[in-house]
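Q&A log
Question type: sequence-to-structure
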Amino acid sequence: MKAAIGKPLVSGVRRECGGGWLANLNVDRSDPFFYDHPLDHVPGILLVCGLLDLVGHASGSPGPRLRLSLGFPAFCEHDDPVELVATPSSEAVRGRWEVSAVQRGRSVCEGWIGHLGRPEPAGVPGAESENAPIRAELVHRVNPDNIAIGTIEERDGNRSVPVLPPKRGHFLERCDNGTHSAEKLIEAARQATTMIPIEFGGHPADSKFLWLSVAADLPHGVPSRVPTALRFGHDHGRGSRYRFLFELVTGDAVLGRLVSECAVMTAGTYAALRPKGAGA
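Response status: OK
Response body:
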């Protein structure tokens, strides 16, 4: 089954008197990308992509770099609608939007998104290569078309995973539009956040993962033909909570950075936390 381009992520986009913007998040539980497998909550990557869409509506043409910092303070449930909010920051922080996804009057995702910074080179094109996707169980994907990273590589004391191009017709291909999109790079970092505790932290593959936060500083306009990878070191921490720093690289050139945090728990602990849930 292909993870095809689906329905628009947001609808009812409207502007407030104070310059802010509102929209409704469209949650389609049949979507083959966001709902790759059954979930008992709205996935965090759908909230992120929805907020990026809303800020795109609000700000128009993107700046040379995308910067964001988002946290997930609560589960987003399937029972109630989700409203997306984007409010311009003060004049002192031009191009930055305070954003939130609100359900039942509380934030389920909040932080800021900004198109900021100065133009930077698009990177050094590298040789074309065919990278095998990482094993599906390491990134909790069922549909192989939804795997965003390749197998682990080791070089000069660092580990890295290549960022894979999406299949034709995939949601992330729409986002890319000929360049490496923020949506694809954030999803790649999210999958790596799941993979590392399993592969290097000793957690079983059926562990449950709560995505706690993501921050990014990424370039716009790097052509899709430029091969990229997420580079990370050996010191990831241990236990149930992890924080990862990923460098977005092409060859030895660093194009951007992402920071991703997660909590890991056993299936039994998650079942006690979410007694009505179907798993995550």
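Response note: The longest strand covers residues 253-265.
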